[in-house]
């Protein structure tokens, strides 16, 4: 069974992008797009000579770095919980 898709239009740095989004997720994706636009706009203010592609790539790298840090923190937290559970069992 295929997932019905709906078109979503977002705007980043004044340029519109369209893509398909799963039903029920358009609002969440629109919020994320707004955060992306704010982040890229802030970077543009700091680096006015950077073009749109450079700003989007920089934003993607920053976001992936943050995600990597969160994943590492989650792994560390999980290990601490496992260790605590082992101590409680003994």
Can you describe what's shown?
- The chain is of the alpha+beta class and 90 residues long.
- It is elongated, with a radius of gyration of 19 Å.
- A two-stranded antiparallel ribbon has the order 1-2.
- Strand 1 and strand 2 form a beta hairpin.
- It has 2 helices and 2 strands, in the order E-E-H-H.
- Helices cover 66% and strands 16% of the residues.
- Helix 1 packs across helix 2.
Write the layout of secondary structure elements.
Blueprint: E1 6-12, E2 15-21, H1 26-46, H2 52-89
Antiparallel strand pairs: 1-2
Question: How would you summarize what this structure contains?
Answer:
By secondary structure, the protein is of the alpha+beta class. It is built from two helices and two strands. A hairpin with a 2-residue loop joins strand 1 and strand 2.
